[in-house]
Amino acid sequence: MTQDHGLRRGAIGLREVLFQSITAMAPGAAIAASIPSGAAFAGGALPLAVIVAMVACLFAALSIAELAKHLPAAGSVATYSSRGLHPTVGFLVAWGYVFVEALVPTLLFLQLGFTVAGTLHSEWSAYPADLWWPWALLGAVIIAVAGFYGTRVSAGLGTILGAFEIVVFLILAVLLIAKAGGSNTLSVFGTSHTPSGYSGITGVLAGSVYTVLAFSGFEAAAPLAEETKDPLRNIRRAVVGATLGIGIVYIFTTYAVDVFVGPGKFASFGTSGPLSWEGIARSSYGLFWIFVFLAIVNSTIANANAGSNVATRTGYALARVGIFPKPLTRVHPTHRSPTVAVAVQFAIAVVVTLLLGFLYTPTTAFVLVATIIVVVVVAVYIVVNAACIGFFARYRRSEFNWLLHLVVPILGICARSEE
Predict the structure, then answer these.
(1) What is residue 178's predicted lDDT score, i.e. its pLDDT?
(2) What pTM does this model have?
(3) What is the number of other CB atoms lying within 10 angstroms of the CB of residue 50?
(4) CB–CB of 219/21 below 8 Å?
(5) Contact status, residue 1 vs residue 333, Cβ threshold 8 Å
(6) Could you report the per-residue pLDDT of 87-116, keeping only the tens digit for each?
(7) What's the distance, CA 85 to chain centroid?
(8) What's the Cα-to-Cα distance from 360 to each of 116, 139, 370, rounded to whole Å?
(9) Which of 298, 301, 302, 411 is 20 to 30 Å from 197 by CA-CA measure?
(10) Contact in structure between 356 and 106 (CB atoms under 8 Å)
(11) 228 pairs with which residues across the strands?
């Protein structure tokens, strides 16, 4: 192994970095879990809540896209914060971002474990409901192998997995809209169907908080900048394109299940039971529930893969400038993958997953890890919005645009501060 030549330049294109961001958002898991959690607050107006969340996330996506255009580095948000604000801020963001991104695979391996174990137990009672850890370990091995063989393999895996989960939910959404027939209505994009306890815009805003979480990860293309063809254009396109594209998928699928269930009853829609995506697939389309289940499982693996890519590339970049230990800069002579970083990420994921999963329960550990990730990621997004203002005001005055480099970042800070 050597560290002389760095990561493989131009190894991937727009398609791969686009799906890096898409899979980091985990659309399958988000459609099945994150977004339905907002139904209790927004009720039948949940599609409007999705639109509100998408607009809020677009502010941060545009700020990151503008910075990526001038700073195409594997350090991504850490580099942006260092240049736009101060090296000390960049240092703190670096540690915080790597910390949470290293936890993302753990989060997904826990979800993979209890999802597969729970489903197998419900179908075959002889299978122990608490035998979750073999599936978590299997997911960790798959991601480590993909990471070892380089960004072409790991990004290619993300493209395939990401496409599958999106297609499954889009097909089911089309079927639900067709079955709803005359019940299709645009009134779900207003506030008339919010539940009594959260009436009007209050319910929509409360529901949008859960939907905002479904967008987290849109910036995951940025750390692959040094391995991307034409990064000045493609990273920008990937970050904004993923936010817009998956946002449209979220709106379409949420609308479909809303009109199928009925806006007046939609506050009871959730993540499990008859009024859930899997429950509706079971009752209305028989064995199609298997594809929904596979899409959710697929989403956890794809998201873990994207998180691992972010953590290893960011760790590599920070080791290169002396913040992290130098061995993390070692890359494979053939695959040009940061093998030491991949190995460290694998070890962290396995140890933390098993430790927390057995110390608590996999579901309790999942909630704990998710809470930590959300708190830190929201803080990072706020700092990066501020960095966009600072970078263009200090270093690119000739390109300074009052809308893109001042108004949009401020709106992004305000939107994230509300979460």
Answers:
(1) 95
(2) 0.82
(3) 31
(4) yes
(5) yes
(6) 999 989 988 888 888 888 898 899 889 889
(7) 26
(8) 18, 20, 14
(9) 411
(10) yes
(11) 12
